């Protein structure tokens, strides 16, 4: 039996953060008191997403801006020319400390791409946070409720996690320094071009394959001679290190929200409700990653200054990007895109020890909102069919279909159906809290309510 506890709010209507329409964003919503990481993995694989403790799923056929869950296969990820230019630009800045506006000689990839023009608006890795419902969850003792459910469950039902287990809040810090080695020598590049002109195609083909740089090659270029040092620190949201660096991270978040979104946070508590509070337990199974599963902040420190923070959930099958914010003074480094590349490399490193943890979830792909289409540029990316819940490769064919109509089934097979469709017999075994001392499953609740007027607010 799951250790997850939620209060379902039902259908919600709110202002849309994409088209700014009033009361036209339609969704399902619930407050999650506690979620097993496997349960949340299952939820996002069916179109749910969280903001703090609030979980929501868009009603895509009815809402103004359909949102399709999008993920990238980190092990098959291919760097684009634009990605490489951003990585080289950052490496040059770390090496020389210069904010150059032109690619270094011998460092370009040929024809530039429009989305990587210096001075172009930076695309962020974050989408607008949802408008939370105008209601507060009922206050309960989570551990007590979990123990009630355990005591009253059927003997044949085995718990997937110890009931009432408190999150492990140990220190989970790690540092991943970045620095540079010089890129491919200009002399070597001239030799390559000369061989190509001479028709030595076989030799060139062999060299290009052997010298093709990976994402990790671009990031793992440390040097003591660098002008600047960039280090990444991974901290759990309830770790002492989070509390110690809270003044810096909140100041950075406030600066970002004002400059990029013109939406200053009310106070530090609002920041913590949005980006620290989490229903996920810090689970540490033997076959999981060293830091365990749960919610983390990945901090980017340039020398001694915090310049960016990636808020992520580490789950059994993915790293899910929750939010990313950065110092607008460093927009010339394209930190939004750089943060996505860093998180993909993090997925690659985790998958070395946990093979199932190979996907990078980017939240929602909103084709009807042009500024949110950038997420589909990471290749290969997959969209979740909102009806069959199968993953489909994002191709130009799917983009063309979304151009025609903002809502699409995506799966072209009309006979395909949801293989994990929630059946009535499954619902019968869902545990429900009737009051502070009594819980029962939905079948018994339904039978009792037919005879009286029972009311339930919580689900397990």
Automatic annotation (TrEMBL):
InterPro entries for this protein: Acyl_CoA_acyltransferase, Arg-tRNA-P_Trfase_1_euk, N-end_Aminoacyl_Trfase, N-end_Aminoacyl_Trfase_C, N-end_Aminoacyl_Trfase_N
Gene Ontology terms, MF aspect: arginyl-tRNA--protein transferase activity
Domain N-end rule aminoacyl transferase C-terminal: 249-385
GO cellular component, one term: cytoplasm
Coiled-coil features, chain-numbered ranges: none
Keyword annotations from UniProtKB, A to Z: Acyltransferase, Transferase, Ubl conjugation pathway
Pfam families: ATE_C, ATE_N
Catalytic activity: an N-terminal L-alpha-aminoacyl-[protein] + L-arginyl-tRNA(Arg) = an N-terminal L-arginyl-L-aminoacyl-[protein] + tRNA(Arg) + H(+)
Region ranges (Disordered): 151-190
E.C. number(s) listed in UniProt: 2.3.2.8
Residues covered by the N-end aminoacyl transferase N-terminal domain: 14-85
Source organism, top-level taxon: Eukaryota
Function comment: Involved in the post-translational conjugation of arginine to the N-terminal aspartate or glutamate of a protein. This arginylation is required for degradation of the protein via the ubiquitin pathway.
Family from the record: Belongs to the R-transferase family.
Name of the molecule in the record: Arginyl-tRNA--protein transferase 1
Species this chain originates from: Drosophila sechellia
